[in-house]
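Form 7-S
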Amino acid sequence: MKTKYTGHWSRIQCWRAALMVATLVLGACQQSSSEFEADAAAIAENNRGVALMGRFDYESAEAVFAELAGANPAWTDARINLAIATLNRQREGDEVKALDMVQAVLAGEPDNL
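Output:
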């Protein structure tokens, strides 16, 4: 007997959101050299945020990426990482926030798939 999912999002919606985030991450890997280029300090901070996510410390990672994305709004990688950290943090409303972030990236970069 199957157990019915009782969360706010259906499993299909969660998978769609995860697929959308994964697609954006892969698309960001193909940026041209004319797009935003982060300085060494920002890259180091981004790497620190990724390491925090690797340790499942999504709360701290979200704070790192929020600061990076706020200081560098044209840096797609920071904005996508912020969405990933927010989604994985799993607080009330984080799924919607993460999806809104991903949709904002796509609105500004519709070819980023």
